């Protein structure tokens, strides 16, 4: 009569579910963390430790989070949590950028939709609407960030629009004012005619744009050399709208130029037979093609021979010019002239280009006012007054409506040689997406040179750690060549430049007491005080308000965010902060954004960078490497991923990716992360079941453990060392891949596979079982703690399953201390050999299983042939049947017979499969001759003894 021994097998027991249900579980854990005050508890636990301060780069408060936000904040959270678990005091203060055009634009849209003009609204009312808009989105984004498992001081974040922040921003500006490095200047800046303001380089993105091109003749009035008498200098430009602002032409002194005569013209050509033209030699043939003409070279000259040449403006004799273009147009040497495109002459409009402006300034050429803030010509501009330089077509694309009138006017004057179109990369506003223009306007600048700001910033870059290191070169190149920092914006929503201009001298008032009064007012009432208070409040009794002009430009928002280190890390509003920050972490675009502005602000006021290290990550693309867009339908929303699969899946994607480069995400990639997650979860579940009921007295000292357990402990030392290096490098994907392989291969497919027999069937007091349960408890502790920064929800769930508690948390723990003596390189090398041999055995048995000659490996008792004595030495003393999960195994020293199974990468090993002899044990399923010869029926001796254990 057969006996059912199932109840005598020690199967794993756990309530930890196989199916995670993360979308339902995670909110419950978030609520638990809130109820126990987890962040405050973490702060208390960490008191007195070495500080680690990751200063949060503020996202903008104007919309739901996108996948880039999720990547950024999860990576910050991972780093904060790893540093905490390394034993550091981590204080993470999240923040928001609140001022600037995007919010202002939204409020303006509301007014436009209602048919109202926002300029008719009192400025303080308008600013309060902007403030309310920002507050609303801060609340939404805060909950979305928290849902990702991001831990921080969410009850006390920073924003750039609080009174304290605005006062600090004003104070920081005051430092540049008082030391003389802030000045008002007229320089070309990138200007948005849509938003009617100057833009910073960090607010600019480049897209393909189709421009009208024109080749224009400038008739020579005074020849610098005999060869150019009676000729016309030919320029080529992609911005016909800048022609009214032309005041000179530039040439390359070292280049070869030719004077050509037009000898033939094709149908439709604007060239005229007999015209003499001057152009660069290298492009003469191409210009002839563009002009549909044939040229005859009359002479060749060096560019330097053109010195002293003066032309007249091509529109001078236009019937509607009325003297508007009656001025000399000198030819000037320019080191920016190139020979690869165009004509070798650059038309110079000092109001619409930096090279143009500097060359004009060098030669005393005044900057004309041609284009108004809204992109229309001033009334004083002859022929084109009131026309727009930029407009949006019905297809949504921007174009220059004045290009055609310019072409027509040049044709009327007989000075248009040709026209066409070109597609090229062109600067656009990252908000309105409209093309920008260069426009020379009065603005407030911080000098890069007068007080050594460039030199200080470059030195600070050398002293900063960059991860990856190429970030150093990128920001360094930008700082080395950048112009003076333009701080002023012609808008309403922002911190006003708290400046007064002396009407007599035109100079800003530099008075520390005045600045102190301004800062004090901002601290009490916010920067709205600048608009609601009389100037006398700030100027005091020492100055007559009638003699000063109050500035109402607002500060560049990059100056706001560049000051966050001052009002977050230094203000004292938060306890236990540290300046400089340990780390700044943002996307690689912030080399020209927040990293850049923070560096300049801090170097200008403190002489060093506000950070010790800078980490950058790439951008998120779809699975095909394309930029995400609604039109392509490839946008991955973090809210959707969290709602369907859970935040831990998104966190796994972050840590499993090489974020030093652009990252990809999509359904298949997320499916891979789900598979990885499932393996990790199953590992935790198996361990929880395996250590059920484990008592302290059952645990076995390491010295008494079998080799297999000591090999697992050795692997723990390797994983631990890899984690410490990953934390130092802020680079986790390689280590996480190793951890996953450790769980899937070393543990599940090897160690657990071998030890489940001892775990299930050995008597509770057996050395093998006690050793396995001891090691599995150590494994569970290590894995919960190692996974805590990465899959923060699942690690907490597993931790509480092992350590039930009302207020405990794995996130209050530090990483496990792995004893150095567990490392055993010789043992690891030996077991590498053992595992290689095992692969040959399992490979041979798999063939038998496929052929249905055996059902499971326990039905086999193969012969193992080993030639190498070193291998046999490694196998000596081991229970190879246990390791290979067979009922028996015969080790034969010598060459394998013909027909034995071998693997090419494991030479000298052969296996002859053979069915095990005997009966199947009804408890452990091994096939042994001894089955049925013990106290209990149908079982082996080991199982018979185990059944008797109470």
Automatic annotation (TrEMBL):
Cofactor note: Binds 1 zinc ion per subunit.
Domain Aminoacyl-tRNA synthetase class Ia: 29-665
Catalytic activity: tRNA(Ile) + L-isoleucine + ATP = L-isoleucyl-tRNA(Ile) + AMP + diphosphate
Domain Zinc finger FPG/IleRS-type: 918-945
Binding site for L-isoleucyl-5'-AMP: 586
Comment block on domains: IleRS has two distinct active sites: one for aminoacylation and one for editing. The misactivated valine is translocated from the active site to the editing site, which sterically excludes the correctly activated isoleucine. The single editing site contains two valyl binding pockets, one specific for each substrate (Val-AMP or Val-tRNA(Ile)).
Protein name: Isoleucine--tRNA ligase
Origin species: Magnetospirillum aberrantis SpK
Phylogenetic lineage: Bacteria, Pseudomonadati, Pseudomonadota, Alphaproteobacteria, Rhodospirillales
